[in-house]
Specification:
about 160 residues; four-stranded parallel sheet; 7 helices; about 35% helix
Length: about 160
Amino acid sequence: MLLHLLEAARRERRFAALVDGANAFDPQTAPPALLEHLLWARCASVEQALRAADVLLRDENLGMVLVDLRDCEPGALRRTRSTVWYRLQRLAGRWEGALVVFTPRPMIPSAQIRVALVGRLSVAQCDANLAEVASGLAFDVLRLRKQDRGDFPQLIQAG
């Protein structure tokens, strides 16, 4: 999903930022063309990642901010106050781009769209191209608020 969103940003010729909450992103897994327009913020904790996202959402040059918290310490994620999520939501609401936060389970009370990926990946798929890997995944929309969120639903469907 992350690579699909980076591809969508590249197609639109927009810069994207990846806030890597656990310093787990491996740039060698992404095609080099996707990395040309990517700002990668490597963080060591949930708190650092959320502060970085706060700063990046104030930048008018970015078309998308992706915050990957999937490999972060679960206790730190649970201790994140809802006011932090609402602040990020307010910043994203005043901004023209898309804010996407990846978490291991639903936990963001202010999320406009909540999507769960469903499927299994195998070791044999490691060398497959992005389209082949994505064909084995499906997504369920858990929540879609009736607020205009620009073209983000189309980005998901295109991916």
